[in-house]
Design brief:
Elements lengths: L1 E4 L9 H12 L6 E2 L7 H14 L5 E5 L1 H13 L2 E5 L5 H4 L5 E4 L6 E4 L1 H9 L11 E6 L7 H7 L4 E5 L9 H11 L5
Parallel strand pairs: 1-2, 1-3, 3-4, 4-7, 7-8
Antiparallel strand pairs: 5-6
Amino acid sequence: MIIYLHGFRSSPQSNKAQRLNAHMAARGLGQLFWCEPLPVSPRAAIALAESAIAAARAPVTVVGSSLGGYYATHLAEKHKLRAVLINPAVVAHLSLAELVGPQTNLYTGETFDFRPEHIDELRAIEVPRLSRPEDVLLLVEEGDETLDYRQAVAKYAGCRQVVLPGGDHSFTRFADYMDTLLDFAGLTK
């Protein structure tokens, strides 16, 4: 089962979530895809994902993009799961601190308030060091204009890494790596 965690100001309507859902459905794996709108509160977002993990009837791989990658790192470490991280936030409590205040979801147009306590919640789930790097696949593009890909390469040293030149924060070559993701998750024959 894939539990897909979208990024900050994103939603299940994101290009990657939609493409992966359609790709899995086309392969007869649609029932193994979960992606829900994540609450603004990191604590609440983790609780929602953990309820999906608990309800899963198949082995879970968490897939996270940007802030979702930060969440996926925490969940994979806590629950001993595989994780695929796409241009992940590495130190979310630092990179998002400057965004405290009113925000707008890029897909729904919904406004929300990102508060200082959310930064504290992010700090509380930081994973300083991975105990099972072999269970993590990192996908990054060097042209990421939002997050420094080198932080992810350093943080996830020892993990399987795909580091591509160019691109941007959206991970422009996602379609080329969906089967790699499914293979890593054990969902292909």
